[in-house]
Amino acid sequence: MITRRGGTAAVARPTLFGLLEGAARITLVCAPAGSGKTVLLRSWIEETALNERAAWLPIERDEHDVQKFWTGVVEALRGTAPGSQLLRPLEPSPSFDGWAAVERLLEALARLKDRVWLVLNDLHELRADEALRQLELLLLRAPKSLRFVMLTRHDLRLGLHRLRLEGELTEIRARELRFTLEDTRLLIKSSGIDLSDRALALLVERTEGWAAGLRLAALSLARHPDPERFAADFSGSERTVAEYLLAEVLDRQPEHVRRLLLRTSLLERFSGPLADALTGGSSGERILQDLEDSNAFVVSLDTARTWFRYHHLFADLLKLELRRTAGAEIAGLHATAAGWYAAEGYPVEAIRHAQAAGDWKLATQLLADHYFSLQLDGQGATAHELLRRFPPAVVATDPELAALVAAGELERGSLDEAERYVSRAAQNASSVSEDRRGRLQVLLAILRLSLARQRGDLPAVVNESTRLLSAPEEQPHPLAGSDERHALALISLGVAEANIGRHEEAEQHLEQGIALAQRIRRPYLQAYGLAFLAPPAVMQRPHRVAVETAMRAIELARSHGWSEAPVIVPAYLVVGVVRMWQGQWKEADEWLELGSRALRAELDPGQGEVFYLIRGELELMCGRYAEALAALGAGERLSRMLAAARPVSLQTKSAFLLTLLKLGEVERVEEVLVKLTDEERAIGAGQILLPLAALQLARRDAHAASITLKPVLDRTAPVYHNNWLVVGFLLEALARDALGEPSASASALERALDLAEPDGVLSPFLLYPAPELLERHRGRRTAHAFLISAILDRLTQSSMRPARVEPTRLSEPLSESETRVLRYLPTNLSAPEIAAELHVSVHTVKTHLKHLYSKLSVHDRSDAIKAARVLGLLAPGS
């Protein structure tokens, strides 16, 4: 039986349809090009009326972009009736995490009741190893209601051997796809040709049932004056057959069709207008639609039949013929295509064709103009791949390219390499045309700011911030350029200013960048700015305002699937630190866990240092002193990666000393205090005076403690945050009470309560409990009776509460390798099998498992899975 789809004839193949109907959960259709894989699946879907339950994803040629692949998977599934109800769009993100995307997809699909098919066409074109490993995980853990059909030219490393042994894999290969005599008869007959049984048998024998060869043969037979003779003379290997048919097809086409076929063969996809631009014609779309209707080598890519591609093998052969007959024209054709794509708003294709044409100037300008847009659109892998295509000699001499290479190195954490390329770009900046020089200067300023911030080089941050804002009047303004670059520059400047304590300037520039990002509809930049606006807010505004700002960033990130993007970490930390100071320790712990999952401490040690400081302070407040020392030690190790000590580094040391005092290690505290450098004392004088005063109180030298605290309390030696000033006044109250000065003690305690009341700060009074002092104070004339009652209630609860079992939580963030091993635990693969799937040694997997169990505070695999699901590290079980 012959069916027609969009004007194209397709042979119904009941045997293969039966295989697909009774297939296991996963079907692999593996055969060479032109074997009829795509036609088979499309025909079967139409035959069985699965259109609303079949998600079809074609993989583009030489696909390296992990995010693009998973976005396509989600969109394809959303195109089905059941999927449209369960799945949300996967928004593009520069910091896309494919593993997290798979977890979210699994979580959503766990509710899938109706059967849905996901068809991955041309899966062999997926070149991203990480995407294949993530797909393997999806195959292993997907619910049974999700059926997979994978079309590929060759076998892939997807761990299918286990599925094969467990009966979950159906395989259809070249042998099953070969056309039979009856299939061939139907195909040839659909072209309006009658061949004898002998001629048909010869055709099947010579082509070995190769679908593309037979379809091309049918096309030639329809125009041949002697079909019987053509079929009898038809012979040779697959390549020979294809080349022969190519000559037959081209020789029999009108000249304008032949010209279109050859000139469009260098395109991955093409439309009628683009074909017209390459040929100088005006009927390209009609010709392409007619070619598709006549079978085999033209495939439409959209339902409107406006975009097309050639069958890959046919395209390769057309390219060979183009090189043979018009090789001198190829560069010009690429240049024409580049211009057309650029004018129509397709920068990626425009850049690729400009590169193919050898027009490195145009390719450079296009990539420089669209680099940040591609990043923000989630096509970072594509941008990097385009950058890698430039010859080293071009990169070495072009400052714009050097700056883009620096940006890529910065993203990977290769700071020395990034600085080298920034220097190279700056040295050659004068070679850039005047109309583009302002854009380059903005990019270099952003890169220098990011370098200085990630290195913790605060003087350099100051210098670069000043440079960005102080361009000479005769030069283009340093913030000139595209809106994305302008918004990124403002936000980068604000982030840098926040790091050096210029909180008012930071807020101003961050708010400007956020407003611009919102206006140009760049939610990622908007979330980035909001997340980094929260820390300056917590330093100088009511905690309520800081939390509101952080929650705006978090909600925006969640709505776009960026909950684990590194740029959101500051927002999690701000909510966590506020809840910590308010005594809401369990909630603070939960927010810090969210932050730990998004943190990339190895790429941003400054951010990692802040995270471990807050984690250590929380452990200190909760009385978990060993855990506090571990976290603060991790922060101190990260601080060594930075260029210079920062206020946060001294705060880490201060919290470390306070923890040691809680453990009674007085001598060790003295040793650390003696070894402090003059630079450290200058940076964090007030912060270091707090543990010194606490040490003196522990030694019952209240007089010395009061003297030590004086510069802290009169703010000549400022502390890291006003909440630590509460601690200072509380220690002063304890010192004055010990000295028998009740009036001075009450005054200091009232001042501590004055500072704590507006933001509901409780933790200082729980860290240094003074119930008798508070009880006496409640009987005096105080404005804070309610706060005192709340503190005393918490102290009473703490004293009456029995020893509790700590909740499951991460003792420290999982590494990327540990996370990958974790995601294989629900599959029940053994350690050797997981090692085989990840292509690592068994010893490596066992080491990761040991670390996993330790960080999750569990002892076996089952508890690890449960704990990971509680923490949201794994999706709920299907």
Kindly describe this structure.
The protein folds into six domains: 2-177, P-loop containing nucleotide triphosphate hydrolases (Rossmann fold, 3-Layer(aba) Sandwich); 181-237, no CATH class; 253-357; 359-521, Tetratricopeptide repeat domain (Serine Threonine Protein Phosphatase 5, Tetratricopeptide repeat); 571-800, Tetratricopeptide repeat domain (Serine Threonine Protein Phosphatase 5, Tetratricopeptide repeat, Alpha Horseshoe); 816-870, Winged helix-like DNA-binding domain superfamily/Winged helix DNA-binding domain (Arc Repressor Mutant, subunit A), CATH 1.10.10.10. The two termini are 41 Å apart. Helix 23 (399-411) packs antiparallel against helix 24, helix 29 runs antiparallel to helix 30 and helix 43 (771-778) packs antiparallel against helix 44. 65% of the residues lie in helices and 5% in strands. The strands form three sheets. It has a five-stranded parallel sheet, sandwiched between helices. It is elongated and about 120 Å long.
